[in-house]
Design a protein that fits this description.
It is a single chain. By secondary structure, the protein is an alpha+beta fold. The protein contains 8 helices and 46 strands. It has 5 domains: about 1-145, Bulb-type lectin domain (Agglutinin, subunit A, Orthogonal Prism), CATH 2.90.10.10; about 150-280, no CATH class; about 295-415, no CATH class; about 450-570, 2-Layer Sandwich (Phosphorylase Kinase, domain 1); about 570-685, Transferase(Phosphotransferase), domain 1. Helix content is about 20%, strand content about 35%. The strands form 11 sheets. An 8-stranded mixed beta sheet has the order 29-28-36-32-37-34-35-33, covered by helices on one side. Strands 1, 4, 5, 6, 7 and 8 form a 6-stranded antiparallel beta sheet that branches. Strands 17-16-24-23-22 form a 5-stranded antiparallel beta sheet, with no helix packed on it. The longest helix has about 50 residues, at about 420-465. The radius of gyration is 40 Å and the shape is flat.
Amino acid sequence: MACIPILILLSLSSFCKSDDQLTYAKPLASGETLVSKGGDFALGFFSPTNSNSSLYLGIWYHSIPNHTVVWIANRNKPITSSVSPKLAITNTSGLILSDSQGQTVWATNNKITAGVTGVAAVILDTGNLVLRSSNGTVIWQSFDHPTDTLLPGMRFVLSYKNRVVGRLVAWKGPDDPSNGDFSFGLDPSSNLQLVIWHGTKLYYRTMVRNSITVGGGTYRSNTTSIFYQTAADVGDEYCYVYTVSDGSPYVRAMLDYTGKMKTLSWSNSLSSWTVIGEVPTACDFYSSCGSFSYCDFTATVHTCQCLDGYEIDGLDFSRGCQRMEPLKCGKPNHFVALPVMKVPANFLHIKNRSFDQCTAECSSNCSCTAYAYANLSSDGTFEDPSRCLVWTGELVDTWKFSNNGENLYLRLADSPDQKNNLVKVVPPIIASLAILTCTAFVTVCIYRGKWRNKEIEQRQMLRYVSSSNEIGGEYVGFPFVSFQDIATATDNFSDSNQIGRGGFGKVYKGLLEGGKEVAVKRLSEGSRQGIAEFKNEIVLFAKLQHKNLVRLLGCSIHGDERLLIYEYLPNKSLDVFLFGAARQSVLDWPTRFKIIKGVARGLLYLHQDSRLTIIHRDLKASNVLLDTKMNAKISDFGMARIFGENQQHAKTTRVVGTYFGVLLLEIVSGYIGVEFMSTVVTCHQNM
């Protein structure tokens, strides 16, 4: 709200004041500023970006690039820029802000005693504007009149002699510093809790004062700052103060125009304000959970829950909760203690009571639904240190914490006799057991069916690939994946998951359980490749392991379905880069040379270094896949042939294959093999 990259600050002229004091002889005019000795804060005139004609007198951080206003004198009476403003010291009213026509816009209304000399207004490094005499007596200070922001060291007086005096009022909008709809201060109805109002309605409510005269907390930001906050009773005053550790970055607390009370710390690395804490959040808005329910802060996700002895009234908590057993006046009842709670709103504070007297106060009243008790002082500061709170009617705006709460004693109806309890309890237990038994039976049947399906698929796989004449009949180990798992991984082979198509069939992208990405080849009906090629690829991949060969992760047979599961390579195949006009520019010469070397290493492994001598017979750009680093991996071994140990020739029933040399020319030239030969012939004829 008060972060002011949105403000045009009128202090940038080369002739502006740079000292920290304002005297009788030196008033402050538009375009001039007072800067604290350490350079932390400045006092001057600014204009919001949405209203360049309106001027405000304010204090802002001087030494950070994000200009942030922390105090404004005339927030509801801006001065038109056409009438030059001036801040001066007078004997009649102390500090006076006026325009060139002599109209007083704002004044401190402090009459300076005759004969007092050396009066000056000084902007301090704390952000406090102080009007003081030469002997150091403070006549007036801005810290006593905060607008929307609290700074370290500021004593924010909430009440004086049990009368509410201090209040923060938010800006009306991000560019409008006038009084907004939200305000923050002490609840005047009890003086026991701090609240945020939205207009005249409660918007947020803190915990009720419940223990000692001085209380507070320590908070550490994600930087090096440590933030201490304290609420204290000092004499007739109840005030709030916070401080920060030495050497910490700037920290401020402010009421945002959206209604959030925020504590922020300046981050030099981010050059912005970061939020240390803010309220309200989640379900801690006033009465957000409805009556007789509470916001559970002990859970990871803050949710609404019913109080003990209550159940939800409807489908959600908008209608709150209702009693399971209604209270009846004159009938037995009891109290249950709910620990670490923020007590509800709308309580009656009964003074001069002990704990037993507070309990009796609620027990004797048929309308009393709950009570809470605490000692406000242990050192005799208060005339009445007791704090007995009782509630009649509904309970709203209650929270549960893991710590830092108090006991709320909730009134419940005594249970009926044992017989009635058994009648109510036993049938639901029997019904629950029956449901659990049925659920367990169905679950076992489902998993048994899935297990049998997997066993059938595995047996079918073994019939195809457990032996092979080409490798001497030895057992081939292979990873098996069930058809159902593959269907789930590919969203039932949806078109949106299809990433390619070849002679074998379609290729799908899938996501196996555990988050592993895979590519799934699915043998299509009428495919030019069949069971022999499917079996051939499994047998070969089970025996081949090389960084320039695509890894087979699994396979599956289910009825007529034949599937192979490979590692997923996001850059797809080489032909996409070579023959796609939009992609050729990606392949510079070092990348092409890297791909050539990768394919060559893979072929050398197949021809010489593997246990088996393998001839691929279908080496082409579409069968060379590329990983994220453009490393080449040879795929598709359906056409490959296995040679014996001393075998150098073999017969085949069909002519297939692509020479490595042709692929090499395609990689170098970017032309398909046939196109390249045609280009060569044409060039030869033209010579």
